[in-house]
Amino acid sequence: MTDFIRFFIPFYFIFFFGVSFLGISILVARRIGKNPDVLPKDDSAYGLIGLYFKITIFSLFIYALFILIFPDAVFSIFQIRFLNIALLKYLGISLMVIAFIWVFIAQIQMKNSWRIGIDDELKTPLITHGLFRFSRNPVFLGMTMSLTGFFFTFPTMIAFLFLITGSILMQIQIRLEEAYLLVQHGSAYSVYKKSVGRMLGFIKT
After folding, report:
1. Nearest to 150 by CA among 4, 3, 5, 1
2. For residue 153, what are the CA distances in angstroms to 59, 64, 148, 156, 160?
């Protein structure tokens, strides 16, 4: 099990971000003629959130590589021993796989509306079908599931820190995007917001 996790985690994140971000972004860029990564690179508060996102993702990659190269040393540092059980590891791996499939489906359903950040230059249609019937933010929900699964699979305080940091950044980004969508789509988004939960269908806010 340990050897499997050692290889699974780094290759999972390489595949996850390679397909769900790089691959999808290249596909959408070819369709719309512009880079869908529209996170600002300025000194604004929103620009800072984008920078923290990139730092978190880069740090996650480095940590995953350390797991591959130095598994015993990395796992022994800040290990949460009472969570180091086989059942949680199987649950974590399952969550990570489901999260990847969920995010990929959500991105495909967004079609040319997929963006990394808020595109204030080109108005995109409001997506309410498919997985968006159950969650207003299925991509962020899937990413949260992925980080949760990672923590269960590799229960250390550092993995927990990635989960907490990633969740906070995503919740801030969600609220920024919701404010933008409300301006762009007005009453249509208000109605949608009241009928579908922010992350899950039974939680409306």
Report:
1. 5
2. 18, 12, 9, 9, 11
Residue found under tokens 């390679």? 18
Average pLDDT over residues 154-159: 96
Q: What is the pTM of this model?
A: 0.92
Q: Residue 19 is encoded by which pair of tokens? A: 């397909």
Report CA-CA distances (Å) from 32 to 27, 109, 113, 129: 9, 16, 9, 21
CB 110, CB 36: distance < 8 Å: no
Are 78 and 158 within 8 A, CB to CB? yes
* pLDDT digit string, tens, across residues 73-113: 888 889 999 999 999 999 999 999 999 999 999 999 999 99
Distance of alpha carbon 184 from alpha carbon 189, whole angstroms: 8
